[in-house]
């Protein structure tokens, strides 16, 4: 199963408590937090629930050597345990097609594509494909910050994922709700990642 993605330690008290796990090579990953500090994780060759820390980790000299992968009964990654603290995986993805009703212009139908796992970035593209900007995950797991390439950046607007009874309904942007088009056959994740497969046959 995929261990790349964004993880958050709760409570999220500083930039070290939100991290992105990206691919650095075969069975090798990069832990990078929002403070822009990073170090390498190596998949243990005999215990697939363990990622080994290297000397580049600032806690290595304190005796920290491993990160433990926590999975559910289906083998899906729930989180990472580091220094006896759980970092829960953020499983929310917003890739898809959305419409603001009524659709009155090309800005009211948009596509959201995944641009990067390392920074958890998405691209918001209007229907005419002439206007687009980057969305980055905020401190709130349902909030996405706009970049300076967005014309509403100076207004401090965020994009908020609306969830009702555990179901993704749409994106709230600049006061309008953009409803997800469930019939668009759009990929659930607009980014194709080539992470090496983790063998689950040995059990946990």
Report on the architecture of this protein.
It is a single chain. This protein has 204 residues and is mainly β. It has no helices and 16 strands. The chain has strands at residues 5-9, 18-25, 28-33, 38-43, 50-53, 66-71, 77-82, 85-89, 96-100, 109-116, 121-126, 132-137, 143-146, 158-164, 167-173, 176-180. The strands form 2 sheets. Strands 1-2-3-4-5-6-7-8 form an 8-stranded antiparallel β-barrel. Strands 9-10-11-12-13-14-15-16 form an 8-stranded antiparallel beta barrel. Strand 14 and strand 15 (167-173) form a beta hairpin. It is elongated, with a radius of gyration of 19 Å. Mean pLDDT is 83; it is low at 187-204.
Shape: elongated
User: What gap, in angstroms, lies between the N and C termini?
Assistant: 13 Å
Q: Give the helix tally.
A: 0
Integer average pLDDT: 83
Task: Evaluate the radius of gyration.
Answer: 19 Å
Largest β sheet strand count, sense and barrel closure: 8 strands, antiparallel, barrel
Q: H/E order of the elements?
A: EEEEEEEEEEEEEEEE
The share of residues in extended strands comes to: over 45%
Q: Count the strands?
A: 16
> In what order do the strands lie side by side in the largest sheet?
1-2-3-4-5-6-7-8
Low-confidence spans: pLDDT under 50, at least 5 residues? Answer: 187-204
Structural class computed from helices and strand pairing:
mainly beta
Question: What's the assembly state of these chains?
Answer: single chain
Q: What is the share of helical residues?
A: under 10%
